[in-house]
Design brief:
single chain, alpha/beta, Non-ribosomal Peptide Synthetase Peptidyl Carrier Protein, Chain A, elongated
């Protein structure tokens, strides 16, 4: 389970990263605890957390599920050592610590009622494979909880700091280069569905400094991330310096605010654990003529009416033709014909494939009539004049 997370790249040292991760758990816990209470789980359950870090999350979970048994899976030896100390008071008999990942698991590591991957999937190279592995470890009716970031919706402040966007763009660039998935938050429900899980729920977990207090927000952040990006060439020193100054000004503003989101998805393993699904593809009408069908020829601009009528009738919008006739077609704009920003792409691809005609999407959508635009924008050349023989047979 090789990934893009390295503890010393997120804080000044391991001790500081352990502190930061503890604050991060505290920042979101009030709302995350509500998620687990809503799942309707029994008291005597088996819980696995993968990528458990220093162990703070399991300690919190033990307060909600005091009769549960836990397995803590973590690769980082410094975190594992910290866990042994953390769990030594009250949890030593309830938590089994495994240093490692999903590869080469002991046979007894299976049959869980609840599995949690929190801020883990964004760092692994093959999320779908990891989620499928976790699904296999669930009991019937067991639940898999994925919690992660989506860095297009991350930390926001007032006063607004433009350089934060540049920092996150640089961060995402590094994560992508190293095999991570910084935008994985939006994909969590699809990962669960594709692994065969059922009854999927998805939502955001949003926290605000006015409610949680600024100290937790500040404790969950670290300048080490920005410094690391500068060192590796993903972020300029000038942007980092400007960000640092504006961050200081923001914190001292009398009405300063911080807001941050995580995303979660929960899925349940059914009795048959449905066959793995592949991602559904939106059906497209791109050049979907019937085999052997002859297209209308394009020998002059007057032929556009027949071509557009053919396209609407056979390819895209036959229902539109119930309300208009061929004579009225010449006066219709794209909206009259139900050609929106998605349908116009289909039309564009179809025309280019079958008639070697390229159209400007924006101009067609803004044109007073579709026929008028097509007639004025296309050149009828000798190569087009034989369309019926060169391109008409599909």
């Amino acid at each position: 389970m090789k990934g893009s997370y390295v503890s010393t790249e997120f804080s000044m040292n391991v001790a500081d990263e352990i502190r930061r991760l503890g604050k991060q758990v505290d920042l979101f816990w009030k709302k995350e605890s509500e998620l687990y209470l809503s799942l309707g789980l029994a008291s005597h359950i088996r819980i696995l957390e993968v990528g458990s870090g220093p162990g703070y999350y399991i300690k919190k979970l033990s307060e909600i599920f005091p009769e549960a048994s836990f397995t803590s899976m973590e690769m980082d030896s410094s975190f594992v050592e910290f866990q042994r100390t953390l769990f030594s008071e009250g949890l030593v008999d309830k938590v089994k610590i495994i240093q490692g990942n999903l590869e080469g698991l002991p046979a007894e590591v299976t049959g869980y009622d609840l599995i949690i991957a929190r801020l883990v999937i964004e760092h692994v190279q093959k999320p779908s494979e990891i989620v499928a592995e976790l699904t296999h470890l669930l009991n019937e009716n067991g639940k898999l909880v994925l919690i992660d970031n989506d860095f297009e919706n991350h930390l926001r402040t007032f006063p607004r700091i433009e350089e934060l966007n540049q920092l996150y763009k640089a961060y995402c660039g590094q994560r992508l280069e190293e095999g991570g998935h910084p935008y994985i938050g939006r994909q969590l429900p699809v990962l669960l569905r594709n692994s065969g899980l059922e009854d999927i729920h998805f939502d955001s977990i949003c926290v605000h400094s006015l409610i949680e207090g600024s100290d937790l927000f500040l404790g969950a952040e670290s300048s080490a991330v920005g410094l690391m990006l500068v060192k590796k060439g993903f972020l300029s020193k000038e942007i980092f310096d400007a960000l640092s100054r504006k961050w200081s000004e923001m914190i001292t503003h009398s009405d300063h605010l911080l807001m941050r989101e995580l995303y979660y998805a929960v899925g349940t393993r059914g009795s048959g654990n449905r066959q793995l699904q592949t991602e559904e593809k939106t059906s497209s009408n791109f050049a979907s003529n019937s085999p052997g069908e002859t297209l209308p020829p394009l020998n002059s601009v007057e032929d556009w009416s027949a071509i557009l009528w053919y396209y609407l009738e056979n390819i895209e919008k036959p229902e539109v033709l119930d309300e208009i006739n061929k004579q009225e077609l010449v006066d219709c704009d794209s909206f009259d014909l139900g050609i929106d920003s998605l349908a116009v792409v289909d039309l564009s691809v179809w025309l280019e494939k079958n008639y070697s005609i390229k159209i400007e999407i924006t101009e067609l959508l803004q044109a007073s009539t579709v026929i008028g635009y097509l007639s004025s924008s296309s050149e009828i050349t000798s190569s087009n004049s034989n369309i019926d023989s060169d391109h008409g047979e599909i």
